[in-house]
Design brief:
7% of the residues lie in helices and 36% in strands. It has 442 residues and is mainly β. The longest helix has 8 residues. The relative contact order is 0.13.
């Protein structure tokens, strides 16, 4: 959930179409029991618009379910959205794809956490036509919206919030005896990843509900700041670590690669202040050095949709004073891949379990995955990426701070980039970018 503006009546959201209506959000109504525990639960949000939409042939409401009944297995449905339509091509036009509802028994094989507030759907025939519509987009079955795009891997099936389960809450929140009633309740869309396979040339009836969760593709997407299941690092044992204050808040990490250069992830781009020599980021430690950024060098081919070439160099306003608290870390010497099963470590500030936040530096151990194994989870993996995670625990590898370092045998090999809420995560493979790094840093 964030600061949302709603566009209705759009087919190509990058073109100012005469059919489009824009509206602000007057109030946000997330489900009071929304939570993420490996998968999102109660993943539903109502938006009260600042004014009623003008209903026309381009803007219509869509009916909600009339009862709390489950959707029968094999029911044919449609999911639609904007985003990726294959591994590399993004579209600004609305696409759609056909899928079918899976039985609850079959879905539990993929998602043991499946609850009565969720439903699974997928294509029975191909991998390419279901991942995904936009997060928050509608699952429409027989003209009724039955689900909200919520969670999933990069292959079918995906999990949808089962709207019928939430009818009492919807009616209570909207104050309508019939939940589909008021025309002022209209959808927002949130641009995430989506492989949907046929362009919709007809106007799309729009949805009343929005998913709380940012799509697991993109942002699987940019990682939140967390070292779940790790342990507190020995103070100042990682003197290359940089805490990045981005637009006023701590949300990313980085690392010192030269006295006046810090490396981080491109998706951390913002108004950055760098803190070096920190263990507790909210304590004014004598070891800390605070520096501004003179110049930002984002990779020229960074793609925020695919999260590729996710690397950013920061030229500091002054050279850091190197001492026992502040040191640089070596970069790779060649462009070679990191061998499978290489032990590595991560460090960062943020969440250390599902609910606890720490201001102190935490660390955890991970292992490099084979490229073949990683491709089965992340089909968009390219030469500028590598995978790492724990083979033994779900808790100890997700994830370092965005922009933080993946350290293998004393060398920084990766930058925390994106992933799911379980291992493995994807890291920018620094060795792939050595020519660009040397060109920028001179």
């Amino acid at each position: 959930m964030g600061d949302i503006s709603v566009i209705l009546g759009a087919h190509n959201y990058l073109n100012p179409e005469a059919s489009q209506q824009m509206s602000a959000v007057e109030s946000y109504h997330p489900h009071p029991e929304y939570k993420v525990n490996y998968v999102p639960y109660n993943d539903i949000l109502l938006l009260k618009l600042s004014h009623k939409a003008k209903l026309s042939k381009y803007v219509q409401v869509i009916p909600l379910p009339k009862s709390s009944s489950d959707i029968p297995p094999d029911t044919k449905c449609i999911v639609s959205g904007w985003g990726l339509i294959d591994k590399e091509v993004a579209t600004a036009k609305l696409f759609e794809t056909n899928i079918a509802v899976l039985s609850r028994r079959k879905c539990l094989q993929f998602y043991p956490e499946l609850s009565s507030g969720m439903v699974c759907a997928a294509s029975h025939y191909k991998l390419s036509d279901v991942n995904y519509g936009d997060s928050g987009g509608p699952l429409v079955c027989n003209g009724v919206v039955q689900g909200i795009v919520s969670d999933g891997f990069q292959f079918p099936p995906s999990v949808y919030t089962r709207i019928a389960h939430y009818l009492p809450w919807i009616r209570k929140t909207m104050g309508h005896p019939r939940a589909a009633g008021g025309s002022s309740w209209c959808p927002a869309w949130k641009r995430t990843r989506g492989a949907v396979n046929s362009e919709m040339e007809r106007p799309q009836c729009l949805l009343l509900l929005l998913s709380l969760l940012s799509c697991p593709l993109a942002h699987a997407g940019a990682l939140r700041s967390q070292i779940v299941g790790g342990h507190e690092a020995k103070p100042h044992s990682r003197p290359y670590m940089a805490a990045l204050k981005v637009s006023g808040g701590f949300g990313c990490g980085g690392f010192l690669v030269a006295p006046d250069w810090v490396m981080t992830a491109a998706h951390c781009m913002g108004d950055i202040t760098v803190i070096l020599g920190a263990h507790d980021i909210h304590e004014p430690e004598e070891s800390q050095q605070v520096l501004g950024v003179e110049t930002y060098y984002i990779h020229p081919e960074y793609n925020d949709i695919l999260v590729s070439n996710d690397i950013l160099l920061l030229k500091l306003t002054a050279k850091a004073k190197l001492n026992k608290y502040v040191q640089v870390i070596p970069l790779p010497k060649t462009s070679s891949d990191v061998p499978t099963d290489t032990p590595c470590s991560l460090a960062g500030w943020g969440l250390i379990d599902k609910e606890r936040i720490t201001n102190r530096l935490f660390e955890t151990n991970v292992t490099i995955y084979s490229r073949r194994k990683c491709l089965s989870i992340y089909p968009n993996l390219n030469n500028g990426m590598l995978c790492a995670g724990s083979f033994h625990h779900l808790k100890d590898s997700s994830q370092g701070d965005s922009g933080g370092p993946l350290i293998c045998k004393g060398v920084v090999q990766g930058i925390v980039s994106f992933g799911y809420s379980f291992p493995p995560a994807v890291y920018t493979r620094i060795a792939n970018y050595l020519p660009w790094i040397k060109k920028i840093m001179g």
